[in-house]
Amino acid sequence: MDVGGRLRRLPVAAVTLFLAALFVLWSAGPAHAQDDNDDDDFVNGEIVVKLTPGTDATQFGAEYGADRADTLLGSANIHLLRVTDGEDTEDKAERMDNDAQRRVLYAEPNFITDAPEGNPRYRARSEGVPAPSSDPAPYSGQYAVEALDLPCAQGINKGANTTVAVLDTGAQLDHPVLSGSLVPGYDFVGDDASPADEPNGQDDDGDAEVDEMTGHGTHVAGIVHLAAPDAKIMPLRVLDSDGRGNVFVIAEAVQYAVRNGADVINMSLGSSQESELIGDVTEALTEDDDDDDDGDALEGVPPEGVVVAASAGNDDVETPQYPAADEGVISVTSVNQQEKKSEWANYGPAAPDSWVDIAAPGEDVYSAFPTSRYASWDGTSMAAPFVAGQAALARSLEPNMPVEASPGEPSVENTIKSTARPLDATNPDHAGKLGAGHADAGASVRKLRPGAGCAPQNQNAAPSITDTLPAPGSSTRDRTPTISVTVQDDATELTSSDIVVSVDGRRVTGFSYDGGRLNYTSKRLSRATHTVELTATNAQGARGTETWSFRIVRR
Question: Among 89, 111, 133, where does a domain finish?
Answer without folding.
Answer: 111
